[in-house]
Amino acid sequence: MDEDTRWLVWIEKQFTDIAGEDRQIDLQEFKKSLKVKKSFFAERFFALFDADGSGTITLDELMGGLQLLLKGSSADRLKFLFDVYDVDGSGQIDKEELYTVLKSCMEESALQLSEDNLQMLTTALFESADTDGSGTISFEELKVELEKNPEVMENLTISAASWLKPPDRKRSGRIIPRYLTWRYIHNNLKKVVFLIVYFLLNIGLAFDGGWRYRQESWYIIVARACGQCLNFNCAFILILMLRQCLTFLRATRLAHYLPLDQSITLHKMVGFVIAFCTLVHTVAHIGNIIAYHDLLGLKIWECLFTTKAMVGSVDWHYGTAYITGWILDLILIIMVVCSMPFVRRSGYFQVFYWTHLLYIWFWAFLLVHGPRFWKWFIAPGAIFLIEKIARSKLVKTARYGKTYIDEVNLLPSGVTHLVITRPTNFHYRPGDYIYIQIPAIAKYEWHPFTISSPPEQEGTLWVHVRSAGQWTNRLYKYFEERKREQKRLHAANRDEPGEVNIAMDIEEEIQNGTLTSENVALPVDNPDDNQVTTDSNIAMTPLSNGATVCAEPTNITESIDTPENKETAIMAEISPASSPNPNEDQPQLIGFRRMPSSHVYVERGTLYNAEDTTDCDSSTRKRKKSRKESIALSSTLDRHVRIYVDGPYGTPTRQIFQAEHAVLIGAGIGVTPFASILQSVMYQYKKNKQTCPNCSHSWMTDIPADTMRLQKVDFIWINRDQKCFEWFVSLLTQLELEQAEEGSFDRFLELHMFMTAALGKTDMKGIGLQMALDLLHKKSNRDLITGLKTRTQPGRPEWNKLFSKIAEERRGKVKIFFCGSPALGKTIKSHCEKFNFKFSKESF
Asked: Where is average pLDDT lowest: 30-34, 406-410, 513-517?
């Protein structure tokens, strides 16, 4: 069957599925089949397909339209596009029609642009296409505008109509699995060599275990062979989870020979090996009992579920081998099942977490069950115990002191930005991760997150948490509720009657001698625990005697000096960040600052010292008493949130400074390790900037190779929608500005931004908007979606095209660092093998 015949058969089948028994497609069926978000394009396409204007599409009409779109010339497709834009059928496209089209394109691409920006896009595209200044765009003018992008003209179609293309034929012939190709082996040599050694070692241990019992039955030989493998693997799986040891090894020469980046993958693999060997070991012992229980004079169940058979009585478990074996089987089944992806990634991480703690009982019973296991376990077990003690809350608190969440920024798409107190002796490297525990969310759960702030940043640590499970959702909702309570309390305080100008009252009291300037809360520069903090938005008003007071008394935090909050009190700020749509998903900042144990209380129209209220008038005391409950609630609400930190631990990204050409690929919230890395890289370059004191000429000195060998960094960030870019767009803007200022390393950092929900230029529903965005970007050198100089590209990256460009630059050996979904990681890794790029993936 030739291609045309296959296509006709496929179209007829698809038409039957859509049209149903009446053999005609109406507007609703057509819209559903094209999967368009809004009705504009569906109605326009439907009107053009419905050649006879009957209100339905027949098979012949569908075939004619699709023949033009999928197999027609570029001129035919261009005419179709022009007819879509020409809503009134006048043969000309006016500005209002273009505005309607671009607005529909924006909705199809899930973009949120203001009315002014949309008008700006319309004007830019209209002025570029209307070359004769007639006030309308003719077919020829649109053709000239589109011919500026010849590759678009060749591939212009309706992306949602891809189901109308017949599926590709399966390739004939035998295909060698990717894992057995020389290219894969070459790019994963450390992992392949390690696996070969690992499986050869297991085969050797199995042979040794079986050979020792070669005089016994085959059941015993098989059981002992698997038992010897279990001795090794049940101890080795522990070594793969010694985080501090693995982090230490990353800084040694052994990192060049050991697959440290795959420690979690290998941990899972060893777990399945243990499960397999356990199954064979158990079945072999059951078979032995079934075959030889008569020799013992016992029934099968008595041998398997009691100690009457005295199996292993010569060892210390006194015949309990079968009993402990069943317990071990049960524990292992629970741990393996609850660690499967369908449990961990379906919102039930706690199930995985708590059942995995059964490893303590597993090793305890294994020490009783296997008389020789202690020889394998003693060394890794001792190291594991030392690590556990070093990572305990008691030791961490003694080493780092108490750590708190200083600020919380609630970002779009359910991302929580935590700003954590950083101890002065807490040292880490870019891309490292930590485990955090927040007792207010869950008292016993630890969760790993990448540090998104650079090591050079003093005082605080940043962590960005995406809501993807029960714990992360509770975290976001917890601070969201705190934000609502703070807003409610601030609103209640602002709305309370009796508000007066506090600056005037205080100045009058000072002039009368009833209040001294020492009683006034003054902002100071020393950030110690004895300073009084005020809202950063409060204007300070100078008095006639030189004292300074707050001109906005309503923003001063009112608190009460009770024993419960004598050590610390909190002041909260809430400041919305910019958002494409100001009415929804605005980032909210909740800040927590230390307050002194003794400070000045400020009531509206009254100021008095916390330790001396004897001179306050009776009305002041009454107001204080009546508001005590509200103030106490505010103090409780704004108290510091305690957080425990375990780490830091190393990741593959530690190698970035030793790469020559690093390509950082982040998908969604996977950008967090690269946020830290990019800031640190730019810091290293700025630190090596030298400036002449006479002529102010600046230049860059060579950075030592042992510090950094980077010659080029490409940063690729892939997001689904526009809101996700808000997480780090301010940081990227700052990096662009710094790079522009330092011309010495211009083009050292190159950004590539992709928005997968946006339709590309080859789609008729997206070409108009993308052309307008291109024109505006060339005119203003600013991307309208993110505000960056880098243009945000629609759709997913074309990896072959992108990697080819990177390879052609020849800026040294290329290494890819990826953090994101496993499915995307496999795709990128396969492309890396084609270009001989080294690949490492963030996993913890």
From this structure: 513-517
Any idea what DSSP says for residue 340? S
Instruction: Find how far residue 556's CA is from the centre of its chain.
Output: 36
Q: Give which of 731, 727, 719, 725 is closest to 667, Cα–Cα.
A: 719
Query: CB neighbours of 44 closer than 8 A, spacing ≥ 6?
Result: 83, 84, 87
Least confident of 286-290, 348-352, 366-370: 348-352
3-class DSSP assignment, residue 719: strand
Q: Which two tokens stand for residue 638?
A: 């704004």
Nearest alpha carbon to residue 606 among 501, 706, 751, 702? 501
Q: Considering the chain, what is the average pLDDT of its residues?
A: 74
**Residue 687 belongs to what H/E stretch?**
helix 672-687
Tell me the C-alpha distance between 165 and 185, whole Å. 36
CA–CA distance, 661 with 444 (Å, rounded to integer):
42
- Which amino acid does the sequence have at 669? I
* E strand segments, 12-152: 93-94, 136-137
As beta bridge partners, residue 463 has 418, 451
Place of tokens 């009531």: 603
Phi-psi category of residue 608: left, alpha or beta, with phi > 0 → left and psi -120 to 50 → alpha? beta
pLDDT in tens, 215-232: 888 888 998 899 999 999
Give the C-alpha separation, 625 to 631, whole Å: 10
Locate tokens 């043969």: which residue?
A: 91
Query: Which residues are bridge partners to 609 per DSSP?
Result: 600, 612
If pLDDT is split at 50, 70 and 90, which confidence band does 410 have? confident
pTM of this prediction?
A: 0.70
Check residue 25 and report its DSSP letter: B
What's the count of helices (H) and strands (E) in the chain, helices before strands?
30, 22
**Cα 724 to Cα 440: distance, rounded to the nearest angstrom:** 27
**Host H or E run for residue 712:** strand 712-719
Better pLDDT: 472 or 346: 472
Name 70's Cβ contacts closer than 8 Å, sequence gap at least 6: 7, 157, 161, 164, 165
Q: What spatial distance separates the first Cα and last Cα of the chain, rounded to whole Å?
A: 51
Tell me the pLDDT tens digit for each residue of 188-211.
Answer: 888 899 999 999 999 999 999 889
**Rounded distance between C-alpha atoms, residue 166 and residue 59, angstroms:** 17
Name the residue with higher pLDDT: 292 or 827. Answer: 827
Alpha helix (H) ranges present in 339-469? 341-344, 349-356, 359-369, 373-390, 393-400
CA 345 to chain centre: 14
502 Cβ contact partners less than 8 Å away, ≥ 6 residues apart: 549, 550, 553, 602, 604, 605, 607
Residue 622 gets the label, from left (phi > 0), alpha (psi -120 to 50) or beta, of alpha
Distances (CA, A) of 691 to 7, 685, 687, 697, 704: 68, 13, 11, 6, 19
3-state secondary structure of 153: helix
Of 155, 128, 154, nearest to 142 by C-alpha is: 128
State phi, psi for 120 to the nearest 5 degrees: -65, -40
